[in-house]
Design a protein that fits this description.
The complex is a heterodimer of chains A (496) and B (178).
Chain A (H helix, E strand, L loop, with lengths): L6 H31 L3 H22 L10 H19 L1 H5 L6 H12 L15 H16 L1 H8 L6 H6 L10 H31 L3 H16 L17 H15 L2 H8 L8 H23 L6 H16 L9 H4 L4 H13 L12 H19 L9 E3 L3 E3 L2 H27 L4 H12 L15 H16 L2 H15 L2
Antiparallel strand pairs in A: 1-2
Helix pairs in contact in A: 1-2, 1-3, 1-6, 1-7, 3-5, 3-21, 5-6, 5-20, 6-7, 6-10, 7-9, 9-10, 9-11, 10-11, 11-14, 13-14, 13-16, 13-17, 14-16, 16-19, 17-18, 18-19, 18-20
Chain B lengths: L1 H17 L5 E3 L2 H6 L8 E14 L4 E7 L2 H4 L14 E7 H4 L10 E2 L2 E12 L5 E13 L2 E2 L6 H25 L1
Parallel strand pairs in B: 1-2, 4-7
Antiparallel strand pairs in B: 2-3, 2-6, 3-4, 5-8, 6-7
Classes of the chains: A mainly alpha (496), B alpha+beta (178).
């Protein structure tokens, strides 16, 4: 029987949602202070409105404190699904007030894209946009990548908070408690942040010849987009703007750090090898495969002409696609001309995505590895004599057994991703987008990549824009918490 | 035979002389992005706003970006209208060309509007596949213009009201919940 949620259930959800809105309010203070310090007073007022709305919504939610603040799975999943909708709604306030978006839906789209670390954008005249507004777009990447949820778990305690952690599509439990794990994730982000911003600053200041403040601004924004595999860039020409191989190299290292699960970070910090892990082997194999595929495609087409040109450009583009970052060193119009194998390599790289429990999107390397292993087992079963025992073991931070439940779970989520890719591509076709472009853009949105062949642009049909936003949301949360939210809403209507 | 050869040579020289050795194509950034290979190695001329940063490198050259979208002539904060995404190309030239120029365009200023002539480098093998315009000449058509955006008092008041409301709710909740 479907049970209708009680008032106390709704209060638990609202109360926990409110705590995260207050964290978002605190995050909104950063661009507000930046705007005041840099004399961008009009944007400062826009941020004040946003911080005010976050604070009001947060305190109003806190006022509804439930009798028992115990999150069960249903509550946790609903909170996660809702926070990823409410934050973009309120977070889009300064964007629409900035005057750089024609419609509210455009600002909302960019806020969803930012928070889900996708990087697709419909912003107009970003090259004259206030630096504080650009900073806010990148902070959305950081909030989404490191996780508002992770921040909440680090700061607040409460029964059942682990449901929030798992609801966000994370399953690495580095320490016994979720709170300790969350704090470790923040430590990883802080260490990478200091090293990454410093390295980017040095290259910009010493090699690119930028001034100190501009070097710092580029460093901090590019770091947040690279490490959180986001893809927003401070200038309209993305990473092509810098014309610098050393800068691209630092970004590549940060993208690799971002695509690694925090479990891998933990293992590397402890100087443990992760090369034996199924996930590591899978991602190295798929990255090499898609890179070679793309290179063959472009070499056959006669692009670049030299091995160094082909190597540098394809390495960056494929790494950006596979890690789900979405940076590019070539314009969208040129990317749209990559046909055949090059298109295949890029699309597959985007669709497969990074490691589980990282900020990358897509199907994820572990699921790909497990799917291949399952298929291999099935084939062995057919070929070997009846009654032969087949070992379904794999290595992932120690030996593990590939159970039937695990196989089914992996297959279900992988199929949902494929369905999501096809759904978005189908809607693109309705709007007369050529098949290749429709597929590319749909995969880019659903796998939270952000590379574009020009379909995502100001003035695009609102329904297509909303569909891509929905894909980004579903792809980032890996479906389950969204199904839980739908179930909760359904039980509100039909439950007893 | 010698006469024929001389006539042929003269004809060839005339033909070559009639075609300018360095014909310059006037082109816009959108075309350069759509069909970049069509202008590979050619002399082109483009007019637009210098934007972002001037990256003065140690080798005595500068890298920057040139936009020729509608915002280049009429930025949003100077009464311009929303006209889509920015369209720009990377430009590279001797530092001397960029000395004494106004700062590049950003939020608080329109960058100098310039006409540049140079060679379009598409997938330049010497720069491992980068695409950009190697400029030889630069003329300033319009100096940089400071842009300002006054703060909306209404927005400020709304923001403050929300904060006061949040504080009020918090105080009320605290007293109610003890």
């Amino acid at each position: 029987m479907l049970l209708r949620p009680t008032i106390d259930d709704l209060r638990v959800i609202t109360y926990n949602l409110a705590r995260m809105l207050l964290i978002s309010a605190a995050a909104g203070l950063v661009p507000l202070v930046w705007a005041v310090l840099t004399g961008e007073l009009a944007p400062a007022a826009d941020f004040l409105v946003m911080v005010g709305v976050f604070s009001l919504a947060g305190t109003a939610g806190l006022a509804l404190k439930p009798k028992h603040d115990r999150l069960d799975w249903r509550h946790g999943m609903a909170v996660v699904a809702l926070i990823w909708l409410v934050v973009p709604i309120i977070g889009s306030i300064p964007l629409i007030l900035s005057g750089n978006y024609a419609r509210w839906i455009d600002a909302f789209f960019d806020a969803v894209s930012g928070l889900t670390t996708t990087g697709l954008t419909v912003v107009q005249d970003i090259d004259h946009m206030a630096s504080s507004m650009i900073l806010w777009r990148h902070i959305l990447h950081f909030l989404g990548g490191q996780g508002i949820i992770i921040a909440a778990l680090s700061l607040f305690s409460g029964a059942g908070t682990a449901t929030l952690y798992f609801g966000e599509g994370r399953d690495d439990r580095i320490y016994p408690s979720v709170r300790s794990t969350s704090r470790f994730i923040w430590l990883v982000a802080a260490v990478n942040g200091i090293a990454g911003v410093f390295a980017l600053f040095l290259v910009a200041f010493l090699d690119l010849g930028f001034g100190a403040l501009r070097s710092f601004f580029h460093a901090i924004t590019v770091f947040m987009a690279a490490f959180d595999t986001g893809g927003f860039a401070p200038q309209s020409t993305s990473i092509q703007y810098y014309h610098s191989a050393p800068y691209e190299l630092v970004i590549a290292v940060l993208m690799i750090a971002g695509v690694m699960s925090f479990g891998v970070h933990f293992a590397l910090w402890r100087r443990r090898s992760v090369l034996g892990n199924l996930e590591t082997k899978t991602i190295l194999f798929t990255f090499a495969g898609t890179l070679i595929l793309t290179q063959i495609g472009l070499a056959v087409a006669g692009a670049y002409g030299t091995a160094t040109g082909l190597g540098r450009q394809t390495f960056f583009q494929v790494l950006s696609a596979h890690s789900g970052t979405g940076f590019s060193t070539i314009p969208s119009a040129e990317l749209a001309t990559w046909g055949g194998l090059a298109f295949g390599g890029m699309a597959i790289a985007m669709a497969l995505g990074g490691m589980a429990s990282s900020t990358a999107g897509g199907v994820k390397a572990l699921r790909v590895g497990l799917t291949v292993k399952s298929i291999g087992s099935q084939i062995k079963q057919v070929l070997l004599p009846e009654g032969a025992v087949i070992s379904d073991r794999f290595r992932q931070n120690g030996p593990r057994h590939l159970t039937e439940d695990l196989k089914q779970g992996v297959m279900a989520i992988s199929l949902l991703y494929v369905a999501l890719y096809i759904f978005g591509a189908g809607l693109g076709l309705v709007y007369h987008v050529p098949l290749q472009n429709a597929l590319f853009e749909s995969v880019s949105a659903a796998a939270n990549v952000g590379l574009s062949v020009g379909v995502t642009a100001p003035g695009m049909p609102a329904s297509l824009e909303l569909t891509y936003a929905l894909q980004m949301w579903a792809g980032r949360l890996e479906f389950i918490s969204i199904f839980a939210l739908i179930g909760l809403l359904w039980s509100l209507v039909r439950g007893k | 035979m010698r006469v024929v050869a001389t006539l042929l040579a003269a004809l060839t020289l005339l033909t070559v002389g009639a075609t300018p050795a360095f014909a310059v194509d006037m082109v816009d950034a959108a075309t350069l992005q759509e069909i970049p290979q069509a202008f590979s190695g050619k002399q082109i001329q483009i007019t637009g706003e210098l934007i972002g940063d001037y990256g003065f490198r140690d080798d005595g050259t500068v890298w920057t970006q040139l936009n020729d979208d509608p915002y280049a002539t009429k930025p949003l904060r100077d009464g311009g209208r929303l006209s889509g995404s920015n369209i720009g190309i990377g430009v590279h030239g001797d530092a001397g060309l960029f000395e004494n120029l106004d700062p590049p365009g950003r939020y608080d200023r329109a960058g100098p509007l310039v006409t540049v002539t140079g060679t379009w480098r598409f997938h330049d093998p010497n720069r491992s596949g980068e695409t950009y315009l190697e400029i030889q000449t630069l003329t300033v058509d319009r100096a940089g213009v400071p842009l300002s955006q006054s703060m909306s008092t209404t927005t400020l008041i709304v923001g403050v009201l929300f904060l006061f409301a949040a504080a009020g709710v918090l105080v009320s909740a605290r007293s109610r919940l003890g």
